[in-house]
Amino acid sequence: MIPVEGLFEAHLTVRDLERSTGFYRDVVGLELGMAQSERPAAFFWVGGRGKSMMGIFTLGSWPLTMMQHHVAFQVRLEDVLAAPQRLRSADITPRGHSPLGGRGEPIDEPIVFAWMPAASVFFDDLDGNLLEYIAMLPDQPRPDLGVVSWSEWKGVHENRLCSPGLSGATPIQGLFEEHISVRNLERSVAFYRDVVGLEVGLIQSQSHLGMGGAFFWVGGRGRSMMGIFSLGATWPLTIMQHHVAFQAKLDDVLAAPQGLRFAGLTPLGGQREPIDEPVVFAWMPAASVFFDDPDGNLLEYISMLPEPPRPDLGLLSWSEWQRLHEHARD
Fold it and tell me: What is the DSSP string of 161-210?
């Protein structure tokens, strides 16, 4: 299996590309990496160039055709605590978590998912995609507490905090979480645990609250997380076909086609064609190998390359990229 280092990329569907580009650039504070008016789509660096990325697409553009996704942004604890006031100053309602589906109640302080534990604030983008600021906490997990308010959590644990500033956008450090829908939870838990190699954090069987899913740590506990949910679960997803990219070492991306075939999977290129070597997105630049999970969700191993971006080259094979650049690798 490929050693996964972290969660790299998430995609969202939007109605108006120009309007949403302004939202993610000016309100969320992401750096615009590339805009494609002909597609139409836009890509943002999350936490700085090469650390992680988010793409937004209009309805009907590849690879997304449906609404309602969820993305969580990893930030400092001080900024999670400041997020409700910052969001309200931007005319955005900060919300908690509702176990019954839909949007949680408006909040003035973060909530805490005690099983992780992590402090969190949810809010909507302009198209109803569910966004989240999240920060891991240094305390021991308390799954018996469920979801509690920050004040309730402080009553159980003593936390030493800095005084949060309240000016500007919330500084984002990286992409933390992505959710996808699956048909068979047990089958997909085995796939993501045994084939992709993710560590299981929590499994929730189907309940009267509509929760049926599992959470995986990506790159180790507290670094980033991915959730899978059974079709019919009321929160947060009820539709198929999402895309998640896993950041990996270059040597492991180069070995991925053979490793995937050994596991009975087909390695794919940028047009879903079978491949024997990675493809290179020259505008980043990054080497990449795509593959499907059991439900047709599009997964990807990706590694940033040290050379300068070459957007004029488009998408090319690893061999073609090598002929244009000499790599000095250990």
Answer: -PPPP-SSSPPP-EEEEEEEEES-HHHHHHIIIIIS-PEEEEEE---TTS
